Amino acid sequence: MTTATVQPHPQPAEPPAAPRRIDYLNVAFGVRSWLLTTDHKRIAILYLVVITLMFFIGGAFATLIRLELVTPKGDLVEADTYNKLFTMHGIVMIFFFLIPSIPAVFGNFFVPMMIGAKDLAFPKINLLSWYIFVIAAVFTVWALAAGGVDTGWTFYTPYSSRSAHTYVAATIIGVFFSGFSSILTGLNFVVTIHRMRAPGMTWFKMPLFIWSMYATSIIQLLGTPVVAIALLLVAIERVTGVGIFDPKLGGDPVLFQHLFWFYSHPAVYIMILPAMGVVSELVTTFSRKPIFGYKAVAFSSIGIAVIGFLVWGHHMFVSGQSIYAGLIFSMLSFLVAVPSAIKVFNWTATLYKGSIDYKTPFLYAVYFLALFTIGGLTGLVLAATATDVHIHDTYFVIAHFHYIMVGGAIMGYMGAMHYWWPKMTGRMYPDWIANLAALIIFVGFNLTFFPQFLLGYQGMNRRYWEYAPEFQVLNVMSSAGASILAVGYLMPLVYFLWSLRYGKRAPANPWGATGLEWATASPPPPDNFAETPVVTLPPYVYNPEEAAVVR
Amino acid sequence: MSVEHVTPGPPPGIPTAPPAPHAATVGESFATPLAHHFRDFGQQHEAGTLGMWLFLATEVLFFGGVLTAYEIYHYLYPQAFEAGSQRLYTSIGAVHTLGLLGSSLTMALAVRAAQAGQGRRILQLFLALTMALGLAFLVLKGVEYYLDYREHLVPNLDFHPEGWPAGVNQRPAQIFFSFYFVLTAIHATHMVIGLGLMALVLVLAGRGRYTPDNYTAVDCLGLYWHFVDIVWVFLLPLLYLIR
Amino acid sequence: MNGEFRLYPEEASTAAPAVDSLFLFIIGVTVFFATITAVLVIYFCLRYRRKSENHFPPPIHGSTPLEVLVIGSMLALFLFMFFWAAIQYLRMMRPPDDAMEVYVVGKQWMWHLQHPEGGQREINELHVPVGRPVKLIMTSEDVIHSFFIPAFRVKQDVVPGRFTYLWFQPTKPGDYHLFCSQYCGTQHSRMGGWVHVMEPEEYRRWLEGQADLSMALRGRQLFLKYQCVACHSGNSQARAPLLEDLYLKPVTLTDGRVVEANEEYIRRSIREPKADVVSPYQPIMPAFTPNEMDDLELEQLVEFIKNLHRDQTPTRNEDTPAPEVRTEQNK
Description:
CATH architecture of the domain at 100-210 in chain C: Sandwich
CATH class of the domain at 100-210 in chain C: Mainly Beta
Number of strands of chain B: 0
Order of helices and strands of chain B: HHHHHH
Order of helices and strands of chain C: HHEEEEEEEEEEHHHEEHH
CATH topology of the domain at 100-210 in chain C: Immunoglobulin-like
Strand content of chain C: 15-25%
Mean pLDDT of chain C: 89
CATH topology of chain B: Four Helix Bundle (Hemerythrin (Met), subunit A)
Distance between the termini of chain C: 36 Å
Number of helices of chain C: 7
Shape of chain C: elongated
Helix content of chain B: 55-70%
Radius of gyration of chain B: 24 Å
CATH architecture of chain B: Up-down Bundle
Number of helices of chain B: 6
Mean pLDDT of chain B: 84
Low-confidence stretches of chain B: 1-29
Largest sheet of chain B: none
Distance between the termini of chain B: 60 Å
Largest interface: A-C, 100 and 91 residues
CATH class of chain B: Mainly Alpha
Oligomer: heterotrimer
Low-confidence stretches of chain C: 324-331
């Protein structure tokens, strides 16, 4: 760390009369300065705006779904409409919210800063990837509004290539382009991390957030092209009528599933690894201790990325896949749980004998720990072949992945928002309402999704517009929880926007964290640092005695 | 390489004058500038080439996905695929291959020209030759597609190949031809993009953008073009030469 | 059963208790570790609350022995679960040889079922006797569906263009939900029905009440109708191979491969005859597409060929009497 600049003591807010500095927000004004920016920080904000919008669109679909499911009969919307709702909820949330979320906002903003660089390796490609993302989002939303898609976000053939009478090809094009954006972002991060670290920052001096962004980017690079081609082939089959997955022409519909899941399983690691990286940062900052087992956590990110490419068949145990292939996928799926277990253990151990401050970001980290543990462990039930036969395609699966993606990834995202908001905007938000919103989200989330584990084992299928009457009680509970969850998610929108105008001005290091991003002002200057920092300390050195010894 | 930062320095956040961008070293005022976020041209070059290699890795996965699907069907329907492959114009495929290999040679010479500072005209010449060969490839591909269409080999467009061997199932043949058109069309699209970028590089070369210290764009374009060539070298035997 | 609150469906098959106990074990492990994590986290948060701004705890960087212990014990536990599940899974995926067979065709948005012996047909319902293993031979006419009986803990995707299999042995008479479990379009959530498990005597009565020409007999009629007999005539100069006693025998193909003549082979030979040609015959058989012969008829033909024994190939000029309908009584 640069010697003078990191003070592990949280700093008080600055006096309002301090002269205004030049930062990346006020260095230029006007639409052009934003739409033609190559500053990674501004691009991060641009992404933030778009994905927030997409989150609320996806959330609107979810609201309608949960409203319909209050009663067993399909009485709110038509069957076709309902089928479109769950399809579009999945597509929007996965491709246009979760996959970009942490990487495109916090990765873009903080990867260069945390390694002491002035920008990403390819700033113009960064802007290009935002434009591609926006075009993809607009195109997809248009397809959804024009008539929607009803194939399920998984686009299984031959239904998607032949039967569905909806805007399949158009939606596929939108998703295809969002994949480009994902690839370019991943490419940018990998090159940046390899080539642009500040002097002294070796691989094992990097913060764990960078390790997880690196692992995520590898998956984005290697996995996305395969789903791109799988979807492209479906679109071609649909538009031109040639047979590739069509069994009537000798095609194999299960081949589509292999190609699709080869990406879509690693995709879930794209969604969770960044959140895990955030949690590593939060747990260390708010317990003022180094992470327990730095190398284990760093390597576990890479391990998850690698093994994650080998488990896709666990989505296909009952698809007609060979039972021996199924057993191999099952074994590997159990293996991939081990690195995640290590992370949970290490985060918990980091708290031991720490000095813990209950700020909002930390609360989100704690909620993450609880919910991700539950979600991950229920994955074991799904990895076990014999039990998966029963719960495949039921609400058990839905509960499992929402625990991970919402209870895990979105909690991580919210934690990152609350952690880095002062740095990005120069403003603090009021603690009390942020903590309240976090609690409401936690309670609402559990009420919504815990009953779904029970529903799934009882035999309620997913993607069902109507369901057997004995499932109603738990469905009502789940829908009630969803309304609470919705309130919880709307609250941050309100207080964050409020803070932009009325929030206290943030100091450079409000949390007393280590990390290069805290060694510069809030908000940061356009070039991030006045001078290129030189790194001498490993990450997470809070104890001044340790800092003195190491130096 | 940087001097260790010693206190006292300016507190964070108060900007000093940003460092002046390094001027082009060989005296030509239009040479590619050093981007402000790089230390030096070396870092800029390394970043550029690493980026291009990573992008090519994604392309390997992209083509690999299609080719894997193709090979699975080849394994399932060997006779239909062989019969289909025999219907393709192998002679045209051969000319394609020679042309593309030649264009890789000229591209390599172009990169060399930039690297060795042989002057903008030589660089432009080699780029233009590469483009010519690439365009010839595409034109010939169009001709081939037209001939295939006339032979009724296009699935769903009046598909009925003549003289189909009696014992061989024709239905999987549609799968063969579907993949043939999809694979060659995707390859051709990559060539079109490559040619577009090449035109841009050609124009910028004329303005003296590339110097021996700083020819990353030409280098990366060369990598891309060689990759497109290698893909074709795989496609040729897999599509045209099944016997 | 309706409206009753239960944590899990009735255990109505031999597999159900086994699946449930594995499930309970894994859930127990989940609850155990989730609780430990929650307790530790809450305890640490309370115990180690920041007391003053100047308190900097001693840095603890890790402990390799502890990590190895954690990894090792997780691995051991997970492998244990894997093996337990694998053994049960193999049992669930391998039907016993004496299983009674039922043919299933799924289509948007209903299930057609056919009992081979008495030719009984059902739509969205399946009657089976208690205490006997039942094997379903399934295909789809259009898109992928999935046959799911929660009370039996079984499920299998039903794929167009091939047969898939599912087996169970019911242990309790009753009526159990049958659901389609793979999204298949508009009426996916209504594509369900009931499995009726009956005492043997009741089942026998049901069979007789619904008895029709057996599937094999219908298949025989199709064998004549579609002129299969023209080439598969059974005499020594026939242009096509003999189909008597063919089922499950090894067959040598023209490309040298030896395959087993199971349902899938027979199906493929009818749908795509040029795919696997028997040596040393010529590939002259025409293909029968789903347009010409739907999956229900296909299954009847398959059942016929499975049960075709020596000297039973029909002749073109048919004047021998049709075989008796085989029911439970005169088996």
